[in-house]
Amino acid sequence: MTTKNQHSRMLLSKNESGAITFCESCDVLELEIGAISLRINSLSLELLSQLMIEATKSMNTYKQEQAGFTQIKPQNFGLH
Ligand SMILES: [Zn+2]
If you measure from the C-alpha of residue 18 to the centroid of ligand 1, how many angstroms do you get, rounded to a whole number? Predict the structure, then answer.
């Protein structure tokens, strides 16, 4: 009984945003984010991870700067 043609995927990570599974036989990572499914080479995970970390850092910096900017602005926008 061979398992070569079977795609036994294992769950690497999962949270509210989605899940990442790994198919050993294909050496492929599958990112499931909502309705989107993305297949990447396992070697790309590290790069993708760095991309995410960099984006998170930039986003936090942006939020901090935006918060600082909002504090300086006068609070006279009562109408919505
Ligand atoms: Zn597979």
Answer: 19
Whole-model pTM: value is: 0.64
CA of 10 to the centre of ligand 1 (A): 11
pLDDT band at 37 (very low <50, low <70, confident <90, very high): very high
CA nearest to 29, candidates 37, 18, 15, 40? 40
pLDDT of amino acid 47: 92
**How many domains, in total, are found in the chain?**
1
Q: Six-digit token pair at 26?
A: 């294909």
Collapsing DSSP to helix, strand or coil, 36 comes out as: strand
Distance 51 CA to ligand 1 centre (A): 25
- Tell me the residue range of the domain where 43 lies: 9-72
Residue 2 within any structural domain of the chain = no
